[in-house]
Structure formats: structure tokens, C-alpha cells
User: Fold this.
Amino acid sequence: MNLHEYQAKEILKAYGVQVPPGAIASSAEEASDAAIRLGGSSWVIKAQVHAGGRGKAGGIKIVKTTKAAGETAAKMLGTRLVTAQTGAEGKEVKQVYVEEALNVAKEIYLAALIDRSIGRVALLASAEGGQDIEEVAARSPENIIKLVIDPEQGLTPKDAKKLAADLGLSGGLADDAAKAMAGVYQAFIENDASLIEINPLCVTEDGRLSALDVKMIVDDNALFRHSDWNKLWGEADVGADEIEARRSELNYVPMDGNIGVMVTGAGLALGILDLLKDRGGNAADFMDVRPVATREQVAAGIRMLHRNPKVKAVLVVTMGGGVLRCDTIAEGIAIACKETPGHVPVIVRAAGTAKEMGELALRNQGIEVIFADDLADAADKAVAAAKAGGKGKR
Assistant:
């Protein structure tokens, strides 16, 4: 689950990380009022969308008057911000964050993430932060400092102070940076995060340390431990299908292709996406069905794929085993297909527990699906159906 900048900053503040004063606004009037309340002589108006690269795309503006704060917010709100991370359709700006503008003397990059190669949390840092951090990492990877944290010891004050020194900080600034690192690490662990990125962590001209921009991703599989997260998850910022997928407990990511994909297992799903690509096709989504899914949840996923106007074929790959059986998937397919006359071709590759029962259930209920013999055959048939433009619909 991606958090907005203002949400991430509220969390980090609770862990002692310094952030500029700011307020969220949904209208020009609210933005102007926020600037008045914050005081000062200049403010930053920031589009709140789940994507990086906002500055280069015009989603971050500095203003000098409270009137300009409202005018700038009015120009942003309701528009679609297109960045390198949003795709061509962009993301609609429904809120802006009004923040006190700081006089920046130095920009630092700081991030906490999971190093999956060793299964530990690591801090990444660079003395060169800001919008071009990706270019810095590509051009001079030696300038990216990595600190792997021992899970038993956590981030020690000694390691934090050394990392601050490696970033060229000393004295009180080094102490403040070490405290910020400790706060970021603690927030990461206690909030089941997969990423906390501060870019930049700035040093102001008057010698203060402040997190100017924050990106935070938390694992929504940990919702049962964080009841307060429901208020962070803004349904207005995601599509109706993503909302339904979450409610139906489906792991779902929309993509740009025309083949709807439902697979029982994330690793298998990734393999299917590669297989489709290798055969000249493109998936319209990543959809992973949980091992304890019900037929109603499966049906909800198939309905989503049928509703997508870009989808010209649906590919379902199920490996029955353990709790989830092939006939449960088949029953879900049948429910959704009966509700959607004239649906696009549905290709099914089933294997494992209750494979024969599932296929028999579909045939007995008159559900017109195309059965595949193996994964390669399934991918070939899905690509062919999609290229035919969904022809062969009932």
C-alpha cells in the first residue's frame, strides 16, 4: 500500500523525524487558508499522487503569496499529472499538500528497504540527493552507501553516526541525522514497511535537518496488525477494480495489455506474464488468487476482467493443491460468465486437485471456455484470441 507524502510525514513525525510544517487541501480556498495558517513568506504546493517524478512533471510549485497558493492549487486539482512512473494516462490530482518552503543548503538521500538478496533491512544513503538520484546511482554507484542492519541488534547509534559521517556531516548535524536514521528504521519495522525513502533529507541554510519529500510503502498483508491503516488507504486514489480486488482479497495490479490474467500463485503469475510477453502478448493485469479464496472471490476477479474494455481474452491458470481446488476456481468462473453474456474468450489451464471435477463442472453448466493442455498452449491460445480482437465471443 502506497502512502501519500503527507501521510508518510505524519508517521515519521511520530518517530522524531523533522518535517516542514504543512497541511492538506482539496480546494483552492483550503490551500490559501493553509498558507495563511502556516505563516512565512513562501510555500510549496505539492500534488498528492502515488508516483515519483512530480517535480519534473509540474506537480510541485513554489509560491510567494497566499493568493498564489490558492491559484496554483486550482490549476493542479482535477488535472491528471503525468510522470515517468504514471504511464501516459497519468494520475488525477485530488489533493495538494501546502508546505512551508525552506532555504536548502544541502540535499541528502536516505532510504530504508528490504535487501531481498540477504533477507535483511538496509539503509541506503547518498550525499547527493534530489530529483536526479537515479542518475547519480547509475553514474556513480560508489556514491550510494549501503548499511545492512543486523535484525538482532537493530540500528546501533555507532553505525548511524558513522553513516552520518560518511555523508559529510559533523557535529550537531551528524547527531540529528543519526536520530533521523533511527526514527526511519523504527518506523520501518513497526509499520511493516517495504520502503521508506526520504529524497531529499535537506540541510537548511540555518543548519536544520528536515525531510522535504517522503515516499512510504507498507505491506497491506499486515492490516490485521494496524487497524488505523484503513484511514490511510484512500479509495479515491485507486480505480474501482482495485477497490473491489482489495475487498475480495485478491492481489491485483492493473497493467497496459489486453489479456486478462488470473493465476493461483504470485510466482506462477509472474511466469505467465513472461510467457505471454515471449509469445507477443501483453497482460492487462497481475491477479493472484489466495490459497484460501472462495468461489465468490474468484467470480469477483473474473467480473473485473470482463468489465475491462481493453481485455480481449481472459487466461486462467490454476494449480490445485492444498486448500484451493480447481473446482472452486471453475465454480467462480461459471458464476461470472453466466452474468456476462457475450464475454470475451476464456482460456483455462487447470492441473492438480479436482482438475477433472472443475472441467466437468464448466462443461455441465454450458460455460464456453477453451481448455489448454499445458502452460505454453494456454499462452498461445490467449495471445491468439487477443490478437483476433476477442472474436469468438458467445
